[in-house]
Structure formats: C-alpha cells, structure tokens
Fold these 4 entries.
Entry 1:
Amino acid sequence: MTKQEVMYKVKSMRRWYVGYQVSAGFLFAAAFTVALGTLLFFLLSCSVTWLWVVLLIAFILYIIYTRPWRINEYSILNFLDRHYPELEESGNLLLKSDDELNLLERLQQTKIREQFAAIPVQQKQFLKPLKQAALILISVALVCFVLIKVVPHDLHQIGFTGLHQSGTKNTPIEKLLPQIAAVEVSMSPPAYTGKPTRTQDKLTIDAEEGAVVSWKISTNIPVKQLALLFNYKERVSLTALNHDRIVWGARKKISQPGFYQVSIDGKLSDLYQVQVIKDQPPVVRIKTPKPYTYIDAGEAQKINIDAAVTDDYGINNALIVATVAKGSGEAVKFKEYKLDFSTSFNGHSPQYNLQKLINLPSLNMEPGDELYFYIQATDTHQQQSRTDVYTVSIQDTAQLLSMDGILTGTDQKPEFFRSERQIILDAEKLLKDKDSISTEKFKSRSNDLGTDQKLLRLRYGKFLGEESENDMGGNENDAVSDINNYGNADVIKDKYTDKHDNAEDADFFDPLLKNQLKATLTEMWKAELQLRLYKPQNALPFAYKALRLLKDLQQKSRLYVAKTAFNPPPLKLEKRLSGDLTKVNQPIIKQNIKPGVDQLVSLRKAVEILEQLKSGGGLSSKDLQVLALTNQQLSLQASAEPRIYLAALSAMRRILSDRSNIKPDDITRVEKAIQKTLTPAKRMPVAMQNPVDMGLSQEYYKNLNQLNR
C-alpha cells in the first residue's frame, strides 16, 4: 500500500469510530428522555412535546462529555497496535514520510504496510458503545411500555395530587350528604386585593380575610330546611331559590378560620375546613444608606436612599419621615419633614424599588446637625409598617477645632491635641497660599507638615508600646552594652522584661481605648502619606478623622463621681470584739408553691383511654365523658387552626359515634393532635435526697477509673 492509501484507510476508520460514538450518544439520550418522560407523565401528567428539548440537551451533554472529535489518526493507529500484534507496535511509522525515517524504520514501515492492508476498516470494538446504548434503550422502552399499560393513567390524581392535598394542606376527601346533588361556592375577595370572584364545586373554603362567600346547594329531593353550622356555634340558614325547594342559597362574610357543617332536615354532614388568608403588612427594606452615616468635611452633603417595598396585594403609598435636630443641650430643636418618592403608586403594584436623593442643605441642615429618618409604607388595606430610624450626621468643623474641650477637660497630653489641630490649620493655610507661592516652597511646606505628622504619630505610638526611631541604634549609657555587665542576668531581665508590679509600667488603657488609639494612628499614617506626596487636600479628611477620634478619647477620659456623705452609727465599745452573735439571725426564705389547675387534664387522660382502645379495651361512662371534653378541646383548636386539627376532630367524632367499629388510624390521628395541644409540664422545685453514703461510692468509682487509665 502506498502512503496515500494508508492515510485514506486510517481516516475512514476515524470516521466510522466518530459515527458510532455519536449514534451511541443519541441512543443514551433517548433512553434518558423516555425514562424521564414516563416518570413525569405519571406524577404531573405533563405533555411530551417538550421532551424534544430534553433529548437535545442530553445529547449535547453526552457529546461534550465523551468528546469524540479528540480522536485523530495517531489515536486510531495506537488502537490498532494494541489489538493487532502483527503490526509490532509500529503503526505510527505509516504516517511518517521517508525523510523522517532512518534505514531500520524504513524496513519496518515496508514490512507492516502488508500487514496493515489486511486489517478491515470497520472494527468490532467500535460497535461496543452502540450495542450497549441500544440495549439500554430497548430495556427502558419495554419497562415504560409495561407501566403505561398496567398502571392506570390517573395514578397521579390518586397518588401524587391526593398526597399533596392530604400531606401538605391536610384536607381530607370531601364526603357529601346523599341528599346533595351539586354544590357551587363563590368567593368574592375584598376590593383591596384586586382579585376577581372565583367559583368552585367543593365545600372546603380557602378565602381571603373579609371575603364574601356564597353557597348554592342543589338537592336531589325537596327538603324542608337547610342550614350551615359554623364552629358548633353560629348557624346560617339557607333560603330556597325555587318553589320546588331543591336549590338553596346563602351568603356570609368570612373573617375567622374554623370549620362548618351542612345540616339538611337535622342531619349533619362531615366537617369542612374554613381557612382564612390574612393580609400581611407591607415589608420595607432599606438598601442604602447604612443605619448610621457620618459626612466628613469636604464630602458632598447629600444622601441617596434606595429602598424596596413589597406587599402581598399592593402598595398604596410610601414616604420618608425625616426629623432634623439642631443645637445642643437644652437648646436643641427638632423639625419634621415628610418627603415623597418620585414614584406613582396608582397602579398598586405589590413591589416597588424606590430611590430618593436628599440634598441636606435643602432641609436647612448645617454642620453639626443630625437627620433622623425612617420609611413608612401603606398597603391597599391601609396597613402601615415602618423601618428603623436611620441617622445622618454632618461633621461640625468649627466645634472640632475649638479649644473649649482642652480648657475645661482633664488631659494628660494637651499639646498632642493642639498639634493635630495645628497640622490641619497649617494644611488649610497652605492650600490658600498655593497660588501665591512657588512649587518648590509648596512641596517643602507640605513635606514639613508630613514630618510634624510623623512626630505626632510616634509620640502617640508610645502609648501603645511601639518602638520609636531613636530605639533603632545603640545607646552609650545602656547598661546591657557595658562590658562590666557581661553575663549579668539581672541587667538583661531588667531591660527586656515587662515589670507588671511597677505602677509606672502598668497599662491603664482598656482594650476599647487601645483600638481607638490604633485607629487614630492609622489615620495619621494616611495623612502623612498624602502630605509626603504633596497632596494636602487629600490629607485633610484623614487629619480631621484623626482629630475627631482624639477628641472622642478626650471625652472618654472624663469621669464624674457624685459627692456622697455617710454618717456611720456610733459603736458600742462594751460589745466591740466580744464575739456575741446571739441576736444575729440567719435569713430564712419560706415559700409555699401550690400547683395551678391543669386545664388540659382531660387531654392527658384521653391519651390513656385511647391507648386502652388500641389494646382492645372498652369505654366506660367516665371514659366517654373524658372523650367528650377532649372533643370540645379539639373543636376549639380546630376553630383557630383548622388545617392542623380538623382531621383529628373528625376522627374523634367517628370514635364517639361508632364505638363498636373504631379504626386504629382514627386513634393515631387523635393522639397526634393531642400531643400538639399538650404543653410540657412545668418542673416544680422538690427537696433533694442525698444518698446514704453521701456520694462516696460515686467518688470511689470515679477515682478507680482514673487509676485504670
């Protein structure tokens, strides 16, 4: 074979391999799609039209996972070398030109070309993935075909939907009286919900709070009287809508949850649930700003409010209630503003994203003033909710640079505070003189201010135990450097150890002050950096913040101790140091704790009676009284939470009405409801009883176990 013939044959093998892999991927994707479609058909009764999308996605994922395009001609030859020994693992020589081969490789190439001509193009090993995919597809198709033929098509209605209704909503299957032919219940939600009137053919009601419910019940025979009994208390009579007294109707406004029964000529039906959907108040969430915002000097005196307001039915209005505080002490004044958002709420949408940019000077705010605001939202049912109060404060530079706190307060290092203030004043003066001085002088003065800031930072660093630049070199008067003290451990310990017993070396700063002092040093670092870079304008915010932290430290150092006076009683010298304690009585606290009346004692006894019924016991007259009281307790619970307790109340009614045929499921359902109702008993204090040996045996075994370890 020539080289062109070899190349053509290898490429043909590659095409067959890629074709088999793609076909196998399609069959695997088809098997997955058939299985998924059958499962969803039984559970959700879904249409099969969208399964083509699933087939395409599964096929693409398989192709991406296997990547058949990575197989090249050399991979095919390596495959042939492994499965055909006559090629002598020299298949790669067939694709090389004669110029790339030496004498031995040429002889080997000529030898294996004759062996390569006898190898078929279609390899059986290429068909293995395709056969596996076809087998899996046939198996899945047969199983799904058997399930569709054997299992009823409405399995999802019997199993899945019924499980969802009974497990999630806990609503049993409705049982109507034999006289009822048809039922039509219409529910008209309140106007604020914006929902239309809906109609159903079930007696179980799940309506909005304040909805008007209309019943239209048709009977198969004429009846004399038809009524609805709500929670065993309220009775609503239905009116005959025709002369044959077959169609009856009534209306009622639903405001409370509970249950009701249908009464036809004195015969009561099962219990039907009445669930009320409460209108939730609106929820307001402020995204920006933070709960406390501080505007430094030089920053824009504006605040952007970004909030989200949501409600279940709709938002009617939302506004910002802002209060501006001016002054200090007893001269403080407050003024309230109500600011509207630039959003129309006429659509009563359930969700709004609100934004408002407030210009603080427009509210007559000045440096030193504070703004307190909150957002108040009102829904379509006139329910209101509000957020927490947010605070915005503007820095008062005049107060910050004043000397009142220095003159009146106690300060260990007052010159430190004046130095930071002087740096700020000099930096502002430098900015004013920038246009009237040369660039070299401007840089020189800025660098000098950076040096002053550095010296101030180093002096404050001593309070935190930081090393100064003077400590970097040796000291001639250092005792450790003296040759006469060589090997003297006391001298070394005196220099390099902390002397906690010495009052002068003790640290009087608590952790909170230390952290604030560290933050001050950080701001000084930043201010010094900008001054070294000849940018005093950028250094001012850091210097202002450092000064504000320092003044805050100054205020925290103030202590106020109220003056108190105490006049001790005169001592009786005749009793002093006598040790007479006869008139000193030990305090004794005695309290009689009486257990309260247990209102749920009937429920506790009912559990015991139900357990006896499980074992085949009978019911006495006292047991019937206890179960009747339990029925009343469950009816009260079902009136408040019908979704949880209505099924148990129906089971209790069946137990009381048919005592000869009590089902274990009804007993279990009632017991679970009673366990939810019962509250754990309060533990009362009791006298402790010490063992006879005073706990010596426990101590003995405890020590013995420790020795064995």
Entry 2:
Amino acid sequence: MKRYEVIIVGAGPSGLSAAIEAAKRGVKVIVFDENEKPGGQLFKQIHKFFGSKEHHAKVRGFRIGDELLEEAAKLGVEVVLNATVVGLYSDKEVVVKIDESIHHYKGDTVIIATGAAENMVTFPGWTLPGVIGAGAAQTMMNLHGIQPGKKILMLGSGNVGLVVSFQLIQAGCEVVAIVDAAPRVGGYGVHAAKVARTGVPFYLSHTIKEVSGEDCVTGVTINEVDEHFTPIPGSEKTFDVDTVCLAVGLSPMSQLLKMAGCEMEDNPKRGGQVPIVDEYGQCSVDGIFAVGDVSGIEEASSAMIEGKMAGVCVSEYLGYIDEAEKKEELAKFDKDLSSLRQGMFAPENRGKVIEKTEEGIDISKNLLRNGFVADDEIERFPGVVHKVGVHPVIECTQNIPCNPCQDACSKGCISIGNNITCLPFVKDDSQCINCGMCVANCSGQAIFLVDEDLGDGSATVTLPYEFTPLPEVGTKGFGLSRSGEKICEAEVVSIKSVKAFDHTNLLTMKVPKEYAMKARFFKCS
C-alpha cells in the first residue's frame, strides 16, 4: 500500500489549488481524478470570470485551468487520471479503481474536492433523447465542438442556465426560451441581460408540462404556475424544439465523506447533503478536509480559495509550517474569500428578495421578471451617464463582487469605490480615449462606449461581440434593444479584434442618435 502525505480526490479548481499550496511547502501530494482530462469544470468555462485580478477576474475559465495545471506540474504534483476513488475510510485509506485494477493508498491527510452533480427534474418525456443537463451541453460544445441541438429550450435561470444559454447561441444554436418556475431570474442580471438582448424571451413562473416525441424530442409544452407552484389550467405554451436543457441546480458529491464517517447535515443553502466542516474545511474526522462544491455550492473563484486554505492547513498539520505562518496565510485567504461572498448573491442572501442596491437604488423589477433593465429604469444607475463625445456607459445594476473595469481603464475613467461589490461609475472629470479595454474586460459584457451625437443625426455604440461569423465593416442590419427587439437600422462602422481583448471583439454600429442609449446589440439584415 503506497503512502502519501496528502491524497486529493478531484483535479478541479479547488483540488488543484489545494495541491499547489501544499506542494509549495514541500508536501508530497497525489491527486486522483476519474476524468481523462484534469481541470474539472474549468475547461468548459469559456466565459470570463468575475471577482478581482487576484481572483482571476476577466480570465476565461479554461485559461485558469491551464495556469493551475502548469503550476501544479512545476511543483511536482502527481496527477493520476481515469482513476475513480470508490472508497474512503476513517483511517484515511483511499481505494482507487485504475483501469480494471483496484489500488489501496494511505494518506496522512485527505482532501475531498469531488465537486457536484447536476440535478434533474421529471416530467412526461424526460427520458427522451434530447433532454440533457446544461453541464452535458457545455461538455458537448466546449470540449468536443458539437452542437447539442438546433432549437433548444432552457429550464433554469440561475447562472448555469444563463451562461450556457449564451454559449449555445455562440455555438450557433437557437435558444427559443428560458423557463423557470421561480418568479424572478436566479442568476446575475448581467448574464440575463446579455442573453435577453439577443432576443431570447424569459418565461418566469413557468415550468415544463411535458416533452413530446417518439424516439427523440420534437417539442415541449410549458405552463404558468401560481405562487404555490401549481400549474394554471389553460396557460400552456408549446415550442418546436429538438433539445431541452436542464439547469436546475447542483448537488454536492459527498458520498465519500459519508463513507468515511464524517458528520453530515442536510443543508439546502449549501446544496443538500454536505459535511459539517470548520471555517477552513476540516471535517469531523481528523485530517480529512472538504473543499469546493462538495462542501457547499459556490462559484469556482471561491472554490479555489477554499482549496488554498486546505493546502495551508494540511501543511501545518504535517509539520511543514508552524501555527503562526498558517494563521498569517489563512488571514489573507479569509479576506479574499470574504470579498467574494459579499453583495446581493452572498450565501446568506440566498432565497431573499433584495429590493435595493447597497447604494439605496431600487433594483430593476423588469430585470428580475424579464431578464433586462427597462428603458425607464436604466438611467437611475450610476454607470449610465451622458457626456459629449465617446464615453463609457456601464449597465451594471446589481452588487456583485467584480472590478476589472476599474483596473482596465488606463485613464482612470471608471471607479468601483471602496467595496468590490459597489456599482461602478464614470468619474465626472475623466476623459475617455476610446481604447475599448473596459468593454473587453467586463466579465458581464455590461459596458458600452457611446457617442450620443455625431452631428449628423446619428450616434455610435460600441459593444462586446463574441459571435461568428464576424460582420464586416459596412454591413447593414438592425440595432436591437435590451429586450432583443429590432428598434432601428444600424451599420457596422468598426470592428476591433486585438490580443489584449482576449477574443472579445468590439463592434461599433452607427444608429440614429435617438437610439444611442437604447440600441445594445447588432443583428445582420
């Protein structure tokens, strides 16, 4: 039986982060993962992360995965793939199935970073080919380059449902609707807004009644539900689709921890059956830690910090650092984690209806109900300003932990304020140089560069554009509103694609000046 100082189960963001922190201090680490590629969910994530630059903000998930793997390899971390851990015992014995053989390992410490599994819901037709999880759709698109379907309905308006819907559109699929039984959008407003302006309708307080088809999905019927989630007779709506995508939450994969005798609890706010852990992830069984989604569903950025904390803790547990160094390191990570757990979407706010921002501004009810901020609501947010010449318009309307726009502007035009969750604003005395870095760096694609009056009755709007084929200069089409409605004629007058934008193209369209503050997407004729 081979012995390791640290055995880590799961080579995702939290597991790799834990391995790196321990290996930095000289600890001998081995990581097991059942997949053929390490990195967990990161290599499905083609969008840019939120947070600050210390938390990989504005970096696409798959690039973060590459960085973690490279660092782990340099530190000598051993990663074993296609290795399924089938057993974990209280004496920290780990049983692993590799190929067709069973292997036994003994760890002085064990870190479980197995992540979470997609939830499913049942309805007539749910077993038909074409009903898939959102994570499966991401795998098909972003790892294998395969469209999950042509016409797709998404069930679930949390961040997963919103992000995957946008990626489906990027892959050339038509998303016919986003449906959710809840009465309000569950994910970040900026994610909802970028989907809505492409023309995807939201059906809140709706759920799937049935999926039709003999051998595969050919259609789906939804109906409205009342405040008790009871279907309302006569409210049915039917869509012709070939795919139904489910984004209805995640459940921690905590079975190994339960097998090891760790004390567990059923905690809906953390995602279901989770281990009872201390503030640094140690379970009730001495020397066993749980990090990432297995201990509570959160964002990948938080999972990475939790992994780092566990890496520091096992280093002290094994005698590689002293208590003072441990406390010093953990204090830094505590601060980082605290900043990511602030704002409207903080863990303690789950399930609550937030009516005002931290600044005392009324939350957009239209955003929560329909996925976009209405024209009569948008002007009340501090990033939406009017100036002569080109200037940024920041349509960030919720308190989420993110600030790359502030760091992106070399002229200091944009400020977040003292708290990473504050709404960004444009400084009064600033002078925009139209470089576009703020547009390209905004993880929520919520910043536009606007020249409200060119002097000839027209205006220009520069927006982030991540679709193919890329329109050419001179292409005529339509400006779409925040709801995705065609509101004016538009012409592409500039396309900027530079390495610093990291595949976010900047499309500038010319529109009638009365639509400068309303046109937010371009569609070819």
Entry 3:
Amino acid sequence: MTAPEAPAQAAMPQPDLATASPPARADGTGWNLVQRILRRQDRGRTPVEVGRLRLALVFGAFTVVFVAIAGQLVNVSLLGGGVEARQLVARKPAPPERGEILDRNGQLLAATLPTTSVYADPRKVLDAEDTARRLHQVFPDVPLATLVERLASERTFVYVRRNISPQQMQRVNSLGLPGVYFQEETRRLYPQGPVVSQVLGFSDVDNQGLGGVERQFNDRLRTGETIQLSLDLRVQHMLRQELITAMTRFSAIGAAGVVLDARTAEVLAMVSLPDFDPNDPGRAPDDARFNRATLGVYEMGSTFKIFNTAMGLEAGVTSMSGGYDASAPIRIGRFEINDDHAKNRWMSTPEIFKYSSNIGSAKMALDVGAAGQRQFLERLRLLQPSRLEVPEVGRPQFPKAWRPINVMTIAFGHGISVSPMMLAAATAPVVNGGFWREPTLLRRELEEVPAGEPIMSPRTSADMRRLMRLVVVEGTGRNANVDGYVTGGKTGTAEKIGAGGYQKNKRISSFVGAFPLHDPKYVVFVMLDEPKGIRETFGFATAGWVAAPTFARVVSRIGPLLGVPPVDETTPEIRQIMAVTETPRPGGQRVSQR
C-alpha cells in the first residue's frame, strides 16, 4: 500500500530583487539611486555572484556605521567631544587665580583651591520631583522645596550645590541623573579659621572680597597678586588666646586687642571678639562680624590722660615739677568732676597721672584751651577715621561745639569716642620719640618705613615714658607690670552710654601700654566690653583689675617671641632712664622733677 501523495502546492512567484519596487517612502530619490547602482553592478553576473556581492556591500555598510559610532563614543567618553560631554564637566574660561594672603613670615592666611559645583539644565531633567529627592539625599542642607523649584523652572541653568566635596561628586555621578552636570570652579580657603577673621574678612562663592583685607585689596587679589600682611600669626594667636581667657573669666560680651610696632607702625596683631570662621561666614551672627578693633568707637576713659598730659607738657602749661590743686571737685552748672582716687590736695603732674586725677587733668586741659586741645588731638589723628587698610573703619565722635565743659571731660576720655586702633596708633608717637606714622596692615621693609611727622618733642616723649612706667610701678596699673620687660601704660574705665545716659554696671575697661620703655618697641592695647567682677577681683571690673593683668599676660608671652630680651630693671642705667624723683615742697606739698 502506497502512501497517498501529498497534494501539489501552488508555485509561489519569487520577486526579482533587482526590479522590485520598495514601499513608498519620503526618501524615494535616494532609494532609486541605490537601485541604479545595484543594477549596474549586477549586469553580466550569475544569481549566486549577485547575492555574494550584495552581502559584501551590506556588511561593508554595517562596518562603516559601526566604526562611526565607535569613534563618536571614544570622542565623547575620552576626548571630551560633543555637546553633552562638554556639559558633564563644564570648563569656563578660567580667570587668573585669586592671589594668596600671607603673614609677615610667609604663613598662609588665605588661598584659592579648585573645586566642583553641581548644576542642572531643567529642560533635560525628566522628573523634577524625583531628581530633587535623590539630590536632597546627597545635599540635605539644600531644602527639598528649593531643589524642586529650581529643577522645575523654565531656565536653562540652575545651581544645585556649589563647592562640593569629591565624595559628594562621586555620589551624584553614581545617580546618573539626566540633565544634572558638574562644573569646575574655585573656592577661597582660610586655613587659620577664625584666628584672623576680622582682619581678612571673607569672599563670596564667586571669589569676590566682601570684607576686611579681601575687600580692600579685591582688585589686586583678582589679578593673582600675593598680599603680604604685617601680621605675625604667632602674636595673633597669643593675643587672641589671652583675650578669650579674659573674656570668659570676666563674663564680658566682647573684647579687642592690638599689637603695634611703635617704630614702623606695622600692626602685628589685631583681634576682635567674638569672631567667626571665614570659611563659613553665613553662619556668623552680626555681632561676630562686627570689628570692635577698627569699626567700634568707644569712650576710652582715663587712657586719654596719656594724650592730655603729653599735650600739657608739650604746650608748656605744666612740667614734671608742676602740678594743680585737686583738693575739691570742679562744678560747672549741674556737672561735677570728681576723682576716683581722691587725694584732696595739690598734686604734682606725675601724681595726677599716677593716681589718674580727673580734676588735675581737667585743669591742665583748660590751661591749654579748646583750640590747642583740638589741634593736638587732630595731629594724633584722633578726630578723623583711621586710614588702616580695611573698609570697616569707625568715625570718631566728638562735640561740634568745643566748650569748656567739653575740654575738661575730653581730658579724661569722656565726651569723645575713638576706636581701639586709633588709640593704639596715637600712643605710638608718645613713646617712640614723638613721630607719627600711619599704621598699616602691610609688611614694611626697613627702607619703606616713613620718616614720620613730628608730633611732640623727644623730651616730652621721654617724660611720658617715665610717667607710664610710674603707673605700673606705683599707680593704678600695678597688675600690668612684667618683670624684666619694663612695661608702662595707662588704665581706662568708662561707663557705657545707654538710652538713659551713662550705665554704671556696663563699662569699657581697657589698658594701653608699651614695652620695653627704656627702648620702646611695641604698643599693646587690650579692651574688655562689659566685664563682670569676680571673687578674685573683690567684685571690681575696672581696668586695673581686668585689663591690666591681661596686658601683662600678653607681654609675657609675645616678648620672648619678638626677640625682646628680659633685663634687670634694677641696673643703674635703666633706673636712671625711668626714674621720676619726687621731693617735698614747702608747706607739705610735693613737686616732681627728673
């Protein structure tokens, strides 16, 4: 039995690839060109040869396309070509790197480092909310709502976060978020943190100076110039540490200090507390950014008797052997001038200074007169803003009408307000032989030190050094004495002015002095804002108890560092230079003479 034959199948016509018409398409002209080329190649060839030729052509076409794609991938991933690759890490034309700031010994205070920022093109972000949530996990300090708002905007460029760390960059990169890219930038770094913050100021995310030296020398720093300051970072550290200690011990709300070279007028240290970290200035409260050393102006109290006594000696209205009757208060209308350490007798000029007599100082100023007093203070630059190289400079306050009552109160530091820097700068000519030099924050070479403007005679300066020494040996500043360093200066305690007038429980306590007085080199000023008395000071918070010992600790630490050798103060040479000898005057009164 034979199997039934399979039914015959209808023969299917096979299309001729050479003559078949393709489906209608927009680029028919190109297809017709390909057909003509194929027909021309097929003439005179067998069907097998035609198939092999066309297979080779197809393979060659695929090879060309593959090579083109591979080349583009290499260009994008390795060579940085293509629009998207350029957006991945954008490279803007780099401006000159912002210049460094150094201290006088070359220690780095401010520098610029390369960094990376994250930005987005909202048009290419697929899901703004999802992208924002994922970025918020990397940058929790950026509010989620802010990220959503930025990524959903119609803009073509928005920052996600500037100045990120390498770890943050890696995390963002691993997310693979469409429309999110990196951009190379720079960031200002302050390696000393808050130590020099009030001097340096800070810069913004675009490296523009916004305060202090950064703002003052912004144009020079932008060109890449290095700025070397007069500051000695070691002295700055020590002054700041001692002010923090005193501020904490006496529960003060603030403090300020200055160390000035009396010969060159270079500022070796300048501190204002509280301070801030310039690496993160946005977190600093306003009080921390306020520079008490240059911007704050205060009534400095009896420290002004340095200038008043120098003025009286220079004007010739008194002498080291002269004096004034301080046996009774001075009454002018409803005002009365008293002495805190009243002796109720005639007092010599050295005694007036040593015991800080307001009565004697006021009478000395009256003898000079309003015009002479104002002229002398103008020569010491106490009636004009400091020209120190920072924008934060306070304007001194003084009366417009210079009446007799003003003459007397200014004599002991009331009715006139100046900054700590102004006071320290004015003290320098009193001790350096009488020459005024503009204080500076820039390092000066010896040949760059100006000759100076003569303010007073060398004799007046020498007499004032003796009187300043007398204060720490026998007067109100005994706590400022430092064995071996021949210190001298003047205390100053002034009540602060409030809404209802002077406030007895709020005061500025300060001490300004110099060392070594037998060969003056450095002026040191310290100030505490609203200190509180403690058990060790018997409840007192006056300058002799809080500012004078702070001055002494600063000198004892910076003296060896600055190369000032201790001396034996009992040697005949130093005793002769510093001696103020007092002899009895007929009638039991005393007179002083060298």
Entry 4:
Amino acid sequence: MINFKNVIAEKIAKQIDMSKEQIEEYIEIPSNKEMGDYSFTCFKLAKELKKSPQIIATELKESLSFEENEISKIEVVNGYLNFFICKPVLIKEVFKEIDIKKENYGSSKLGEGKNVVIDYSSPNIAKPFHIGHLRSTVIGNSLYKIHKFLGYNCIGINHLGDYGTQFGKLIEGYKRWGNEYNIEENPIDELTKIYVRINELCKEDESVLEECRNNFKKLEDGDEECVLLWTKFKDLSLKEFQRIYDLLDIHFDSFNGEAFYSDKMPEVVKILEKTGRLVESEGARVIELGEQMPPCLIEKTNGSTTYATRDLAAILYRARTYDFDKALYLTSYEQILHFKQVFEVAKLLDIDEKYTKNLVHVPFGMVQLKSGKMSTREGNIIKLEDLLNESISRVKSIMETKNPDLEDKDKIAEIIGIGAVIFNDLYNSRVKDEIFDWDEMLNFNGETGPYLQYIYVRTNSILKKAGYIPKIEEIDYEQLNDKGAIDIIKLLYRFEDTIKQSTEKYEPYIISRYLIELAQAFSSYYNNNKIITDNKKEQDARLYLTYSVNIVLNSGANLLGMKMPERM
C-alpha cells in the first residue's frame, strides 16, 4: 500500500535541507478535513530560511511535482502546505490491501526478529484479585496483542507477588489457626481472614511479628514446612485467578513470580558487591543513587531480600533467557520511583547496555468505583470477578428488555459485559485515574464497548442479508466518491499508522478512540445511504466498504482484548 506521508516527505526533502524523517515529524493530519489529507507546517522553517511561513509554503508548492495517482491537489493556507490524496487511488489501495490481508489488515513486520518481554497483571497470591489489578491486566494484554500484530515476538509474564514478609505472616497464621478455616473450598477469602487475624496479633505482640519475619527467612532458606505451606497457598490461589483470566480470555507465557528468583538473587548481590557500590546503611545494604534519588535497598537488616533485589534478578534472567529488545513493566504510577531506582541499579549488572537502556516502566492511574449494591466488598477491596459478573448480569437485564427472544443470551451477555469493562478501561490515556460509571459504560449509544459491538453487528447483518462479498476486481471505485464514503476510506487507511502510534506511546486508547471514530463514521454513512440497492455497481462498492469496516472493527477490538458478538 502506498505510504502517502512518506511520498510527500521524500518530495519535500529534495527541496530543503532536512531529512525525510525530520519532515515526516512535521507532517500532520489536519483536524479540519476540508483542509486536506496531510498538512506540512512551514513555521518551524521560518527562522532557518529567514522567510515568512507563507512564502516558504508558496515556493515549496511551486517546486513540488507528484504523479497523478499520488497527490491530486496542493494548497497553501496561512503557512501550511495542504495535500489532497487522489481519491480513486486511495480507495483502490485500501481495498486491495484488505483483499490481500483480510483480518491481518493493519499488521506489519515492524517488529520481526525482535523480542518484547511484557510484565503485567501480577496479583499477590493468597489475596483477592481486585480491581486494582484490572488496569495492569487489560493494558498489558492489549500491548501484548498490539506488539504481536506488528510482528514482535512477545513474552507475556505474570510476575506473581508470591514472596515477602506477608508470606511469613500467613504461614504463622496458618500454623496457629489453619484447622479453623476451610481454605480448600474458599481459598482466597479464608486466607485473607487468616492474614487479617495474624496482622492484628502482630500489632499487639512484637514477638509474633518477629516470628513471622523468621518464617520468611526460613522460606528463603528452603525450610520444608514453610515451602510446603507456601506451595499450597500458591496452587490454590492460581486456581482461583485462572477463573478470572478465563473470563477475560487472557493467557501468559510465564507465571514466574518473585519466588522464582530466590536462588538467583545471590548472584545479583555478588555482582553489586564487586562494583564497590553496595554499602551498609543502618544495618541494611543499599546502592547510593546520588542526590536525585533515595538509595535503593538491596538487603534488609536481617539479610532478607527486597522487591528491588528480585526485580534486578528478573532483569538479569530475562536478558539472558529472552534476549529482549524491550522489557515493559505495567504497574501503577505509585511505583515510578521504584522502577527509576531499579533501572538505574540495573546498569551495574553484568549484562549488555542494550538491555538496560530498553527497560520501560509503563505506569497507569488508579481505579475508582462508585459504591453501591453492584459489588461485593471486603473492607475497601472490590473483587474483579464480582465486577465482571456484575457487568454481565446488567447486560443480560438490558437484553431481556431490548431483545428477549435472542438466542445464546448468556454467551452474548458475557461478550458484551466483559467487553464493556475492558473498553472502559482502555478508552482514556492510561495515566488518568479511571472511574467506573455503570450507566456510561453500558450505554449502547455512547462512546463505549457495547456501541462498538453494536455497529460491528450491524455490518454483520448487512453482509448476511446480501449473502456475498463482492470480488475486488468487480468494484467500481467511482461509486464511492461521496464525502461519507471517503471519510471512512481515509480512516481505514490510517489503521496501520494508528497501531504504530499506539505501540510507540504504549497507549491502547489511541486504538480505542480510532475505533469509535470509525464506528461513528460508518453509522452516519449507513443512515444516509442504502447499502443494498437495485444498482449492482453501487451495491458492490458499498458492500465492500461495509466488509472493510467489519474487518477493521473486529481486528481493532481484538487488539484491545475484546471479543465481538455475531449478533445482539
């Protein structure tokens, strides 16, 4: 498919002393569609060329020449050079590419031969999987799918919180009162009760807290009883978590959590010792990081490890095992300082600089939920499974009212309910805090997951009614010369670029917003034009446009981790 932005940049680069890559950064898509398909700003050249932007734009216009099948018109407006793509060629290019690639339209080989490690979800074992884990889980899953679509080899890692003093506490609580709780039947809730109870006792009795710390040290040292109990807690927790991952249809390549690195941390400590940077501080051992950051704690006073030690061991292991080109860490913005410290200390590890300079923390905002009867609460914890089931239940109630005779209601309600939760999470920039509003999230007419699914189902029903997909060679492109059709074609053309932008910024919301724009454009077109008509040429062209929208809506939703129902 012709890269028109690239073509424009190449032509301009021949006229001025700038690289094609620099020029591409200055080329934008005008917000006003009447101003063209691409716009090159000349304001940034004014100082260098000592001319007004308007004169630079005018001179450039006169010196540029394009093939007829590339750019049909160039206009100068207030220091901007506006380019209009040849519409029949644009339609042909888009349809031809969709015909060849079908559901892979928008994919590329950009990441071919490159490995990307994505660390996401990471719930704590023996604790409820709550909505705080939702963002890491769905943003990470989407980034995994997006990178894979662009040809990267992705390794999705669920870095479980399965180590630390809290397990020393849980082991102590279970030793004392385990026979009072049925952890086999309801593991997470019962283990949470034990954890709350032992914490209360620790506050009352310092000697119990010390015993808990000793339990964790024993666990690190491989004590048989402690390891046996820890393994039991982990296995029961993973079984519970898997139910949620099955609901979300999320899969991981590795469940290596913090404990996996227990035998790999001594090497990290030895490497840091050799650098001479590991120093004692108040009985603990730290790496000083200058005035810009507080020291990074490597070993506690009792010799036990920290989150930082385990993250450093993970970096060392992942560099050696996966030879990654990028390693992404999906956590809340509360951990920004932690990862700054860890990434700085990682430069002291015995690995190539190509790994340490490609460690990326992808932070996100917090989740807030309006209180109400729709969720089960444990203190201030809202379980993710309850949230997903509540969404499914609410969708089912809406469907009972709107379409009571629909077949497979349960399955469709699940697809829509879970899709609504995922889309709601991914519709705004990840750094923003997210607030759940059920009425907004489940609105079939708003900028929501259900709306996106509704428009997709509409395209499905049109194609089913027609009973065929037209052959590409039989399409008369002149039948799509109206503004509504051209707007859709331009959006379809932008799909691959949208995915690349989303990857560069680690922002799935760029795709979410794009899909809503495409759905709205098609809805408007559908309301103003009959797709199935008596004119065969007109019908074929409009059907293929519908088919193209269907393909992209489905592919885009898949990149977000959403499924599309065939009917609703």
